[in-house]
Inverse folding.
């Protein structure tokens, strides 16, 4: 029996914890305190940490957790990530003995160049690549790179549970409504996720089916999104990467 929960950290981060009755995995522990509190409360020890990318809000808790638990730390090869015991890159497989979990590593550059996502047992830990109804900002990569990363995630099954590293969903929905406001699936998601947040619940994990249907950053193959980009660019037939890049640029301006 495995339990998967998003532990809130900082303002809007989630540290995903996946555990059996004794051992846990933590994904992107930006701070140690909430992880230690949860593990103590449930009589667990930390077996492994998975890291998606080098940003501090995903790595800040590693030194303290590693010192306390002596856990394995799987992360991309980037000197800005402390305490790494196992470097990973796209195409790798990670086998954890306890909890017994196997992950496939996908290279998903765009937000950062080192960004990877972890897929295991139907759950995708995609860090700051895909958010609920949104995607990460292009700090190091460009639109073509991020669109290619998202394209690889679009090949995963509909039922894949999407475990993002931030609770940005409601704000992302507000933006999505400005570019795709006629989409009935998006309107339904807005109702459902606003109710979840009003009840103090996370909107995540979502599913890849829901993101496909509602997330404008995964919909660059949709005629409606292509038409939106064509209008903004003032020319017809933009490529998928151009559609993605246009929506990302409009969102950056909307964020202010
Ligand atoms: Zn980040
Ligand atoms: Fe982040």
């Amino acid at each position: 029996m495995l339990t998967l929960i998003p532990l809130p950290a900082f303002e809007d981060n989630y540290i995903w914890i996946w555990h059996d009755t004794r051992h846990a995995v933590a994904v992107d522990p930006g701070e140690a305190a909430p992880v230690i509190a949860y593990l103590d409360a449930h009589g667990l020890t930390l077996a492994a940490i998975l890291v998606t990318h080098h940003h501090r809000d995903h790595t800040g808790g590693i030194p303290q957790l590693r010192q306390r638990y002596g856990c394995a730390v799987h992360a991309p090869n980037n000197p800005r990530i402390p305490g790494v015991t196992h470097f990973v890159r796209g195409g790798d497989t990670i086998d954890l003995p306890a909890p017994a979990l196997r992950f496939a590593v996908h290279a998903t550059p765009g937000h950062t160049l080192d960004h990877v996502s972890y897929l295991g047992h139907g759950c995708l830990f995609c860090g700051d690549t895909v958010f609920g109804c949104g995607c990460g900002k292009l700090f190091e990569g460009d639109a073509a790179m991020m669109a290619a990363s998202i394209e690889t995630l679009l090949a995963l099954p509909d039922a894949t549970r999407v475990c993002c590293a931030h609770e940005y969903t409601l704000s992302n929905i507000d933006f999505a409504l400005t570019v795709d406001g006629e989409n009935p699936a998006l309107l339904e998601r807005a109702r459902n996720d606003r109710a979840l947040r009003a009840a103090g619940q996370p909107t995540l994990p979502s599913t890849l089916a829901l993101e496909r249907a509602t997330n404008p950053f995964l919909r660059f193959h949709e005629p409606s999104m292509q038409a939106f980009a064509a209008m903004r660019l003032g020319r017809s037939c933009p490529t998928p990467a151009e559609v993605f890049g246009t929506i990302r640029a409009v969102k950056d301006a909307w964020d202010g």
